[in-house]
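user:
I keep going back and forth on a fold encoding question. Separate attempts, laid side by side, tell us more than any discussion would. Would you put together a sequence-and-structure record for a protein of your own picking? Write it directly below this note and I will take it from there.

assistant:
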Amino acid sequence: MTHNAGGRMKRILVTGACGQIGSELTTTLRDRYGRENVIATDIRMPANEQLRDGGPFEFLDCVDPHHITRVMQIHGVDTIFHLAAILSAVGEAKPNQAWQVNMVGLYNMLEAARQYHCALFVPSSIGAFGPSTPKEKTPQDTVQRPTTMYGVTKVAGELLCDYYNRRFRTDTRGVRFPGLISYETEPGGGTTDYAVEIFFEALRHKRYTCYLREDSSLDMMYMPDAISAMIDLMEADPARLVHRNAFNVTAFSFTPAQIAEEICKHIPDFTIDYKVDPVRQEIADSWPDSLDDSAAREEWDWKPRYSFEAMVEEMLQRIAQRLERPAEQKIR
């Protein structure tokens, strides 16, 4: 079933729209598809005025199927970006909540997509891999034995989306995101949050205490590239897609020591020290150092625009602008 064989979505629902990815995706989709055609939903009211007043907003708890049915019927949705989730570090602190939101919520959204003939985007993660996965250039198809509840829900989610596509012809699609870096929204409890926090601390205090070891290499991506990846995949010709639900995508890999060194090129007296958090360090150690994203490049022409150096420079510029505006002081 191809809801958008011509590559255009018409009525788009975003769950978790107040989150780190959702807030920026919603704004971009409204610019592209028209503000009235993108329905932002979350379990909390957006603090962001642009998100709240820039188009339709609905309260939606993805764990409650009645909420979903009501919103689907009111708005005549044909495409869903399902971003509501509990992230890795929070998931280890609250595994039961992570299962409920990440699995029951996903099942409910898949059922809604099946019943209302919608296309459904579901993000997976490098968290879907585990210590037994090849660390370097992790293949598209490889062993997945994660050691976190977050990772377990991501692998199960990939399989469930595959199942709905095969069994019910539901148009499911997704990518495995690396750590995402953004100046817009505060981090939401992920293992790679340090790569956002470090910029704010560098500009505010010229020093940062990192919770990962200095040599912890992780795959990362700048948020504008992540937003492009999601939209490009949903606009792609479905006939070309072999993998559909869990494309590896990446832009660059770096360690805390390397990002600190790059920041020093712009803020020479910046310093970093380390106080390792064993929980997040163990999670980071179980993830790949780098991903092979050739399948995404072949099947829907994926290509990141930002290099590591360009990302660092733009993050510092953008956050400096935010910190100069008094109303924006409470970023974290």
Remarks:
- The first strand starts at residue 12 and ends at 15.
- The longest helix spans residues 95-115.
- The two ends are 43 Å apart (CA to CA).
- The chain has a mean pLDDT of 93.
